[in-house]
Amino acid sequence: MISPSIEAAINRQINHEIAAAYNYLAISAWFEQQNLPGFAAWFMIQRSEELEHAMRLYNYLLDRDGSVALGAVEQPRGDYGDIKGAFEAALAMEKANTAAINELYKQAKDEDDFATLSHLQWFLDEQVEEEKIMGESLAMVELAGNDSSAILMLNEKFGARKPEGEGA
Ligand SMILES: [Fe+2]
Ligand SMILES: [Fe+2]
User: Which of 9, 45, 127, 128 could form a disulfide with 98 if both were Cys (CB 3.0 to 4.6 A apart)?
Assistant: First the structure.
């Protein structure tokens, strides 16, 4: 049995992951509207991954005989200004999510909930990867600046990403 406070914290984290998916969907739509389908496809993969993260926590909570309590999801931004703005928003969101995972980890540690600590290990590693990829992507976008051929090249490059498990 899981403690009520850890149960509530995991439910909040499920909400964060679903909110992240929703934000990535909004970013993807924004890129489609800019006629940059490669970037849009890349953010759709991000969206799928965030939903998977939510489901990992959802299944874990049920495995521990906890109750899933789904909350309201905040409305994402509709406009990101420019390509750099979209990646900046994505990086800020990943950093906020890392902080949320760290907070959850600390809480599980304080309560000696070893199974939750073990489950969260994967998320700690994943956040390192997510921040790295988003930071590198932002750097590439900054390098491209307003050079339209560089932007189109990046659009191709991002569009070539395959969903996890289907090879790189
Ligand atoms: Fe996530
Ligand atoms: Fe993420």
Answer: 127
